[in-house]
Every structure is written in C-alpha cells, then in structure tokens.
Amino acid sequence: MKRWVRKFQLAGRGVLSGIRGEDSFAVHLPAAVLAVGLAAWFQVSLVEWAVLALAIGLVLALELANSALESLAKGLAEDRNPAVERALDMAAGAVLAGSLAAVAVGLLVFGPRLWSLWCGLN
Asked: Is the pTM higher than 0.85?
C-alpha cells in the first residue's frame, strides 16, 4: 500500500510541477474552470459532463506529457538536434489537436445554449 501512496505522491508532484512551471496551464486551467462553470450553470446532462471531463482531462494530460518531454529534452540535449525538435513539435501538435477537440466539444455542448441565451436577450 505504501508503494501506491508514494506513486500518487510523485504523480501529484508532477502535476503541480507542470502547473507551476508551464505557461500553457495559464490558458488551459482557466478554460477548464470556465467549462465547468458553464456546465454547472446550464445544468448539462450526465453524458455532457462525462464528455466535458474527458475533453478537459485529455488536454491537461497532453500538456503534462508535452511539458515532460520538453523538460527531458532540455536535460539531455544541449545541442540543437533535429530529431529532438521534431519530437517536441509532434508533442506540441498533440496538445493542439487535443485542444481543438476540446473546443469542438465546448461548442457542441455550450453553443446551442449560449445561442439561445443570446437570442433571448435581443
């Protein structure tokens, strides 16, 4: 049991390190909070909550993986290395793809509700 507790402690330390050390979380975390706030306000369905949670989790996990790869690359390769740069570009692309998917989820879940709200105000 102690081994599992230690694993969770290390994982938590990694999450905090990513949040504190990476600028991208300054965008991703407020977006996640906004999505959760809108979901609560609009009282979305359980399935919509699940899809939103998966989208948020995907983006944050991809950002953590990208940050870990960047940190590892900086620690191992002092000289410019095209293979390392390519790997870093692909990891950043994974974050972009996940973020675009999350935006699509947000538009599908919140778009019609926000549109109805907007049209009702005019």
From this structure: yes
